[in-house]
């Protein structure tokens, strides 16, 4: 029997202090016999002595100096139990050496001089009855043991020692100690003897079989031992391993040791802990001396196994120092790993930062703040090695704080992208080249670049940054100048165009095409001028030219915007965007996450599909503008109505423990999945344990209440998690219960919230009792259902197997899930990926099925098997009916034209014929065999179309014709109109893709290119070339004449959007060039055939003569009253065909409306005010007309004499009416929704009010902006109109309330 000796290395206990006073250590080699823990150790069959306690746990290693400094000084124990004491726990055996009074706590024990830890425990024995709280355990090694003793079979002796204080006093024992021993010897097969040693300790020896002898000593100590309490410090990360799954480990420990084990409760509001040095908790172990020590050692062993390797996160190191810690190409980090044997992960330094270090003052060092960042340095490995690496990194950080300097410089923000990143150089390369790192600001309003590095290298780093930034040419493009008169402002429209082009990736396309870079900054007012960066000036010019075309193709009439609460953005993005595009031909651009305050942008795109849509590059016609505005208005109304139908938005929060979050998330997903199609889902977020719901009020309240009830139920269920229910289930149906890959079991676990184990014909359920009973009922019902299992063997030709199985087994998996059956297809010699998805895995490990190549087996409940068989046979019949096939061989070069852009042509063929058309990808002989599958009719139709296309392609020829470059623009025409006419007249296709392929002009960058390529059928190509030659001959014979036309008449020749000019050019087959406005030139150039030019001149002269016009002087003070915001001009244009200008004179300044206030001067009511109290609240201001304008302004009426006379009469009537308008009232209602009651259906209400009051009433279009209703007329008439308007609003509101009550 071996000697086991204990050496103390922690604070001396009371007993050890007494020994030190006497300067005496008893050299008493003691044999310790302990109980073998079957769970923790496997005893040797031949062993008759107690084995050695495991050596000191590997997680007891020295910590870094910094970490050690955080440990509180440990006070000497006074009244608590010292588990280190040999006197208190003599069963550790062996004499006690002198105590080391300087011992450190167990979690930061220092190494001795020789590098070994101070104290270790035997490595292969049972747990000791006690171990020091400081980490000192029994030493090991051959030198510490006495000579082995002779083992006699059946004569095994187990020994323990007890101090007097560990034995109950005589008056607390139920019987005298000798009587207890006699009774124990009588009941047990072991013989227990007691002797007293020299120092008063009691020695108990049990002779007999090992297990029986150990149990006898256990029973003895249980009867005579005192109750003790021991604190065992362990890493917090080991807590879960002590408890075990469902508490299994801690329950087993308590049963085997007889001790009570308590762990501190976890603060559920805190996130899960990381494995780190300082995360410690105390485990309380209560029991007698033997059971407490045994439980304690078992706990320490589990913790030791789990805590030997740790992962530490250094969260207090500034991210700016990462590159200097890692070194060039991470050389320093690799050296750190090699020297310490740990894994070092240093995250890449973020280039863009929102927290740039403050610039230091003269002679000062920069201060790098230790931010608790989310991407810290991580160290992983053995605890001692990790601590050493951490100390090295912390030392390096302190050095860097003293060595690094910093410089900042302002660089145009658009140039930042060329310093670091995709368009610059990698940050690692910048560091390797300069020895410095660089920070770029993430704030769009900040342009300060920061360079950090050693003092002597910072200047070189700054120079490098400037060189990179200034390596690109920069030019500005102000796109707002194209539409100065945009309704909402030029800059706002420019921002809308920029957002759309960005979202459509059109700007990205230009960047790739011309190798340039755009910076499109925004401000609160709108878009700022674009910054265009390039290395090639020619490419910059080409890009600018294309941008001009894109902007001109997107006038304000093509776009509109709708302001929507950001809450609805997600719903609109997923549900509304595709619907609006399909139903209203409008594309929606949603605000970015960084700018949720931006409105939703609506852009008209037309009937084409989103994928095939081509961005326009020319201004739309007037008819196109009218259509755009109609569709945009309809789409805007649809979105606003959808949003207005929703309830008011509210939010609420509930507190949910962290451990219930996953279950709550699944519960919410199920609840929200049951909502109606037009209901917007509630948005759910969490911060810590707080879960917040935001959405429509009723939906938020309902969901929050359900979640509260769910969490409360989970808390109640948590108390019953230990309930276990076991029952039998037929083993032959286990595969059905488990499902493929455990899918059925997972589904049942999710559904019933219980743990399910299936083993050898038994099912064990663990969880809340009610849920376990429900799950049991469900499983037993499934078993009864499977009792009537049936097997069908179907004869199916193997050529149909692949299609029956489906891609990745999708077809068969669907049948198996629906009917709860298993379907087996024969294994082929070379299995495909599709075959692997079939239910083969369920028979894993079993003998291979004997199955013919044409046999398919369906197995499962009779009803399900019958239905699966019938559906499988129906599918087979369908495949047979649709298994006709044919092939068409075409040239490889024809394939792109057959597929089309994005597969459009091929999809059209498939839809037109219904056939399945497969085109192989790779061919080597220049020919491609296209496979057609489907019904007989479908295959025949598809084959016919393909052969027609093949015949056309085979007859396709390519010819070229040289045409002087100056005629190219004429041949193309406006928007390609002339080109289209040429192809159609020759018998070509009007398809846009075919047009582009038929006639190809030289590229723009080919300044000398004159060759035009024509491709198509030979007859079509010949006709096209003939037309081109004819057009060129006509151009060459053209004449040019200049006709003098007064500058003020130019506008009448151009028309709105150029429609008159285009009409003249089409009518007379000429080209008309009119000088730009403001150029001072009057000559109009007419180009064409001589006869056509003469006709055009004569017509223009007649037009100019008709447009001589007549001037009427209108008082400047009455100009705006008569023009009525331009409505009077439009009326003259539409009714009298007369245009009006002012002979170049400036228009009088329009009087401004007063501020939106009540008549009393108070602010308008809030939306949170009481509805009844604010029903009659409004803002009303009357302004009497006292214009400071003096004199007259000329109104030049242009048109035919008879039309001018009509216009003059209308103008005189308007002047008379304006004279009677002595006042203007401005009325603002508190609720924009009530403006519609003023207008009435089809404008009926407002027209009635106009007649009754004799006033002119203008209701603003966009009431949401707080614009006023303008009432112009006499002072009395204005007041009367106000009363009538308020009555109309009151009637409308009351009618809605009545309807709601009904």
TrEMBL record:
The keyword Endoplasmic reticulum does not apply. Residues 1-20 have a biased composition (Low complexity). InterPro entries: KH_dom, KH_dom_type_1, KH_dom_type_1_sf, SCP160-like_KH. SMART domains: KH. GO terms for molecular function: mRNA binding. Residues 226-304, 308-398, 403-470, 721-784, 788-877, 882-951, 955-1033, 1037-1105, 1106-1216, 1221-1290 form the K Homology domain. Keywords: Coiled coil, Repeat, RNA-binding. Residues 1-22, 39-58, 113-148, 833-863 are annotated as: Disordered. It comes from the Eukaryota. Residues 114-124 have a biased composition (Polar residues). Residues 383-410 form a coiled coil. Gene3D superfamilies: K Homology domain, type 1. GO terms for cellular component: cytoplasm. The keyword RNA-binding applies. This is K Homology domain-containing protein. The lineage of its organism: Eukaryota, Fungi, Dikarya, Ascomycota, Pezizomycotina.
């Amino acid at each position: 029997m071996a000697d086991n000796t204990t050496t103390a290395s922690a604070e001396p206990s009371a007993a050890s202090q007494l020994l030190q006073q006497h300067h005496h250590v008893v050299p008493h080699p003691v044999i310790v016999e302990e109980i073998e823990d079957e769970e923790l150790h496997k005893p040797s069959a031949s062993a008759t002595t107690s084995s050695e306690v495991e050596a000191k746990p590997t997680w007891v290693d020295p910590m870094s100096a910094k970490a050690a400094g955080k440990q509180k000084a440990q006070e000497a124990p006074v009244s608590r139990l010292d588990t280190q004491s040999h006197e208190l726990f003599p069963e550790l055996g062996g004499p006690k050496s002198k105590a080391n009074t300087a011992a450190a706590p167990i979690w930061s024990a220092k190494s001795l001089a020789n590098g070994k830890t101070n104290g270790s425990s035997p490595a292969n024995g049972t747990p000791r009855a006690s171990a020091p709280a400081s980490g000192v355990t029994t030493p090991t090694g051959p030198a510490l043991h006495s000579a082995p003793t002779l083992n006699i079979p059946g004569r095994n002796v187990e020994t323990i020692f007890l101090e007097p204080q560990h034995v109950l006093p005589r008056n607390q024992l139920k019987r005298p100690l000798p009587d207890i021993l006699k009774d124990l010897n009588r009941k047990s097969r072991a013989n227990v003897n007691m002797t007293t040693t020299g120092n008063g300790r009691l020695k108990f020896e049990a002779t007999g079989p090992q297990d029986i002898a150990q149990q006898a000593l256990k029973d003895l100590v249980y009867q005579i031992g005192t109750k003790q309490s021991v604190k065992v410090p362990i890493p917090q990360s080991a807590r879960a391993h002590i408890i075990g799954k469902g508490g299994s480990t801690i329950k087993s420990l308590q049963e085997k040791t007889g001790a009570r084990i308590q762990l501190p409760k976890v603060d559920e509001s805190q996130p899960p802990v990381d494995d780190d040095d300082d995360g410690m908790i105390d485990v309380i172990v209560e029991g007698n001396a033997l059971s407490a020590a045994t439980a304690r050692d078992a706990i320490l062993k589990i913790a030791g196994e789990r805590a030997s390797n740790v992962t530490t996160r250094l969260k207090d190191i500034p991210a700016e120092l990462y590159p200097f810690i890692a070194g060039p190409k991470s050389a320093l980090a690799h050296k750190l790993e090699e020297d310490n044997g740990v894994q070092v992960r240093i995250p890449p330094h973020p280039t863009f930062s929102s927290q740039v270090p403050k610039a230091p003052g003269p002679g000062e060092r920069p201060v790098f703040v230790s931010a608790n960042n989310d991407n810290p340095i991580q160290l992983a490995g053995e605890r001692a090695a990790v601590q050493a690496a951490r100390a090295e990194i912390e030392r390096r950080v302190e050095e860097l704080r003293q060595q690094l300097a910093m410089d900042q410089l302002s660089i145009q923000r658009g140039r930042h992208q060329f310093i670091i990143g995709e368009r610059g150089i990698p940050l690692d390369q910048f560091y390797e080249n300069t020895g410095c790192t660089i920070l770029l600001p993430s704030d769009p309003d900040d342009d300060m670049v920061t360079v950090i590095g050693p003092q002597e290298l910072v200047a070189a780093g700054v120079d490098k940054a400037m060189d990179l930034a200034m390596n690109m040419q920069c030019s500005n493009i102000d796109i707002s100048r194209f539409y100065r008169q945009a309704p909402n402002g030029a800059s706002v429209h420019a921002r809308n165009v920029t957002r759309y082009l960005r979202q459509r990736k059109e700007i990205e396309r230009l960047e790739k095409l011309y190798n340039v870079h755009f910076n499109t900054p925004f401000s609160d007012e709108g878009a700022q001028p674009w910054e265009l960066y390039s290395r090639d000036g020619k490419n910059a010019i080409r890009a600018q030219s294309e941008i001009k075309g894109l902007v001109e193709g997107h006038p304000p009439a093509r776009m509109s915007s709708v302001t929507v609460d950001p809450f609805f953005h997600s719903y609109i993005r997923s549900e509304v965007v595709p619907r609006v595009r399909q139903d209203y031909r409008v594309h929606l651009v949603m605000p970015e996450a960084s700018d949720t305050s931006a409105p939703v942008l609506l852009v008209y795109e037309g009937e084409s599909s989103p994928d095939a849509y081509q961005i326009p590059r020319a201004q739309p016609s007037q008819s196109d503008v009218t259509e755009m505005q109609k569709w945009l208005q309809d789409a805007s109304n649809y979105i606003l109505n959808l949003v207005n139908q929703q309830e008011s938005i509210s939010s609420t929060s509930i507190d949910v423990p962290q451990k219930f979050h996953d279950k709550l998330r699944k519960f919410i997903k199920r609840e929200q999945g049951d909502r109606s199609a037009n209901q917007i889902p509630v948005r759910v977020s969490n911060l810590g344990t707080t879960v917040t719901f935001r959405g429509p009020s009723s939906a938020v309240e309902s969901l929050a209440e359900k979640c509260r009830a769910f969490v409360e139920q989970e808390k109640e269920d948590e108390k019953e998690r230990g309930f276990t229910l076991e029952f039998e289930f037929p083993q032959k149906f286990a595969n059905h219960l488990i499902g493929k890959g455990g899918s059925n079991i997972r589904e049942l676990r999710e559904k019933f919230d219980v743990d399910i184990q299936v083993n050898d014909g038994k099912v064990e359920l663990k969880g809340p009792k009610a849920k376990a009973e429900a799950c049991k009922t469900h499983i037993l019902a499934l078993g009864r259902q499977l009792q009537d299992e049936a097997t069908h063997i179907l004869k199916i030709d193997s050529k149909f197997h692949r299609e029956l199985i489906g891609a990745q087994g999708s077809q068969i998996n669907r049948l198996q899930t629906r009917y709860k059956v298993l379907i087996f297809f024969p294994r082929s010699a070379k299995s495909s990926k599709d075959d692997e998805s079939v239910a083969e895995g369920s028979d894993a490990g079993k003998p291979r099925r004997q199955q013919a190549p044409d046999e398919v087996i369906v197995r499962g409940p009779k009803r399900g098997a019958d239905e699966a068989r019938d559906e499988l046979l129906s599918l087979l019949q369908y495949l047979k009916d649709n298994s006709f096939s044919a092939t068409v061989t075409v040239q490889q070069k024809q394939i792109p034209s057959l597929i089309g852009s994005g597969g459009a042509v091929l999809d059209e063929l498939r839809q037109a014929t219904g056939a399945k058309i497969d085109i192989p990808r790779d061919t080597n002989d220049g020919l491609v065999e296209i496979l057609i599958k489907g019904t007989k009719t479908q295959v025949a139709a598809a084959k016919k179309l393909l052969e027609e296309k093949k015949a056309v392609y085979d007859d396709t020829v390519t010819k070229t014709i040289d045409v002087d470059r100056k005629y190219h623009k004429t041949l193309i025409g406006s928007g390609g109109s002339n080109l289209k006419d040429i192809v159609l007249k020759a018998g070509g296709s009007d398809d846009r893709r075919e047009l582009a392929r038929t006639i190809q002009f030289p590229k723009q960058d080919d300044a000398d290119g004159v060759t035009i390529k024509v491709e198509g059928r030979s007859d079509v190509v010949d006709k096209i070339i003939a037309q081109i030659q004819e057009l060129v001959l006509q151009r060459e014979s053209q004449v040019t004449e200049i006709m003098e036309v007064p500058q003020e008449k130019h506008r009448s020749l151009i028309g709105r959007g150029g429609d008159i000019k285009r009409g003249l050019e089409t009518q007379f087959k000429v080209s008309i060039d009119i000088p730009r406005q403001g150029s001072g030139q009057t000559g109009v150039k007419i180009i064409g055939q001589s006869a056509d030019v003469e006709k055009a001149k004569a017509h223009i002269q007649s037009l100019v003569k008709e447009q001589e016009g007549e001037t009427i002087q209108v008082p400047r003070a009455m100009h705006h009253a008569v023009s009525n915001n331009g409505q009077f001009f439009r009326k003259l244009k539409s009714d009298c065909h007369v245009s009006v200008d002012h002979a170049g004179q400036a228009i009088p300044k329009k009087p401004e409306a007063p501020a939106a206030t009540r008549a009393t001067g108070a602010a308008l009511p809030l939306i949170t005010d009481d509805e009844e109290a604010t029903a009659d609240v409004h803002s009303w201001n009357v302004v009497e007309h006292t214009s400071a304008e003096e004199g007259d302004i000329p109104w030049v009426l242009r048109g035919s004499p008879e039309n001018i006379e009509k216009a003059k009469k209308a103008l005189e009537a308007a002047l008379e009416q304006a004279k009677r308008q002595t006042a203007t009232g401005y009325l603002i209602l508190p609720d924009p929704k009530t403006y519609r009651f003023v207008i009435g259906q089809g404008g009926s209400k407002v027209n009635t009010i106009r007649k009754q009051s004799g006033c002119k009433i203008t209701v603003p279009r966009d009431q949401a902006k707080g614009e006023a209703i303008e009432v112009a007329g006499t002072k009395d008439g204005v007041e009367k109109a106000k009363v009538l308007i308020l009555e109309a609003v009151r009637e409308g509101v009351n009618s809605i309330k009545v309807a709601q009550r009904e």
